[in-house]
Amino acid sequence: MTSTNDSRAPQPRLGIQGSVLAWQDPWAGQASDQLMRTGTGRIVLSQDDAPRGQEFMKALRELHADFYVHHVFPGFEGQRELLADACQYGIDLCLGNEYGNINGPWVEGTNRYDIPDAELLEAAASGRLIGILYDEPEHLQINAAQYRKDGWFPHWKNGDGAASSSSSEQPLNAQARLDHARECVTKSVETRVKHVQALLANAHSDSAAHAGVPGAAASSVPLLSEQVFPVLFHAQARGGMAPCPKIMKESFQSLQLATALGAAKQYGRPMWICADLWGPDVGSWFTRTPGFPGHSPEEFASALRMGYYMGPSHLFAENADVLLSYGADGFRNTEFGDVWQQFTREFIPANPLRWTHQDAAATIALIHSDDSNYGQNERPFGSRELSMPAESQSVFRIWHMLSHGAIPAHGNNMHIPGFDFPRHELKRQYAAERFPLRSGAVLPDKPNVHPLFYPTNNVLVYDGFVQEHQLGSPNLIIVAGTSVSSGTLLAVRKHAEEGAAVIAAEWLLPAEWRSSKRYASGGLWLPVSDFLSDAVREACAPHLGRPDCWTQRFGASEIRMYKKDADGFTLDFESIL
User: Fold this and answer.
1) Does 527 share its domain with 383?
2) Is the domain of 344 the same as that of 363?
3) Helix, strand, or coil (residue 501)
């Protein structure tokens, strides 16, 4: 598909994240093989020879990367050399916290590693710092013992302590405790965001006062919530973070992207996208370790186009060691590297965007409280004392209906009952010392499980604080979850009066609004207790679109995505301008 319109929006900047298995970090050397660089729970020795930093920077340039995502070593090995090479080769830097999350040291009372102020200031002074990435903070908030084993320490705030205490003289009821736990996450995020913004703003002000000294403005260096689960996007964006959804991985793509797009639009944040090559599947492709990569080159090619069409400010691939191998003859592309080069050298120049993610517009607005439930049905916001309300599961049923039954009715990603990942069988059949597999492995009895295609019709997700002017003009509004603000209820009631179909959970409504009503404008007000009832299906049917098409609208333009193969592992795209 080629655009013939010359009205162009700012184009997404492209990046690549560093190696975690293939070669030692080009600047940290042996430190790479002395700590865990992946979430596998063990130290994995590098598979390839060790390149020099400048060789790697040249490889990034040949791959048309604008920036490099580098997870900081807790001992800061190679940090200054990295900055020097980035400046020399004109590569911008996004610094991540994953190695510290996995190995420590952690911020007291959390499982979170914060890059220290001194290292942030040094990177900002180079003029190359463009982002600070927090790796899967939603996962580490809810599943707090993923890496740190000496206690239960959620990423942002301990949900137990937050939920069981209040400044109020009256004890909090169950819903108030849940709301309080959510607010504690948001406030903890806000505290960190404001600290980093003030730190960088002061440094930028000082550098501006000394001619010729570069520095990064705080406004240009967002804190990113890079997420695998489509929960807490809104809670963290409300606190000041920029959403960075992972695509591919184990996600239902339309759900993941609609949620991140809605959070970015509602809170006016940048949106980055990570095309994460870790995943559930196996096949006859170059494989570093089970699940890496867990997607085919053909799926990767479609996912890159899919992510690009969402109009993110930045798009990057995780990781470099799927795209490249390194040996005596230097860096060589894998089949995945060839896909990336075709995307950057041919596809993007032929298909310039004329919108950004902030232009996203909804035919269907799904409003629900950010309850942190991805299908685990426990530990809301990382609390082991609170129970996950049953009402939080209403959102899963809505997605099942909105996707024509393609998305399960009991969770919002593949880490739920009902999915058996082929990578687990690959791990059982192939010893670690046999990797990498140059031609992968085929397991005939383990069909792959991760398609890209899940049909929905211009859906955006907002939380229970969305305001009337932020909603736009959706034809259908659905309100669910465990709570919603009074202001949001008034806003959606007004939309019903003005012609929209509004379907709302009865338990969220005041008694006087629990009767259905049709308005002269054609609008509908429909309170319900079951989002899979015949009444809901009948009211939604005119707005659901076709089951063979996934659409996402941006202003006056719309991207339509179809299955390119029988199961939807690859996509065809159509742009309606």
Assistant:
1) yes
2) no
3) strand
Within a domain: 71: yes
Query: What is the rounded distance in angstroms from the CA atom of residue 419 to the CA atom of residue 427?
Result: 16
Give the DSSP letter string of 23-48. S--TTTGGGGGGS--STTSS----SS
SS3 of 279-312: the string is CCCCCCCCECECCECCCCHHHHHHHHHHHHHCCC
Say which range, 144-158, 283-297, 335-349, has the weakest mean pLDDT: 144-158
Cis amide prior to 105 (ω within 30 degrees): yes
What distances in angstroms separate CA 457 from CA 111, 365, 451, 545, 559, one per listed residue? 38, 10, 18, 5, 10
Asked whether 113 and 97 are in contact (CB, 8 A), the reply is yes
Rounded to an integer, what distance in angstroms lies between the CA atom of residue 88 and that of residue 32? 23
Domain that holds residue 467: 359-415+452-576
pTM of the model: 0.96
Final residue before a domain boundary, out of 334, 354, 374: 354
The answer to whether 265 touches 553, Cβ cutoff 8 Å, is no
Which tens digit of pLDDT belongs to each residue from 153-182? 999 987 676 444 445 556 789 999 999 999
| Domain harbouring 243, CATH code | 3.20.20
Measured CA to CA, the distance from residue 98 to residue 113 in angstroms comes to: 8
Domain count, the chain: 2
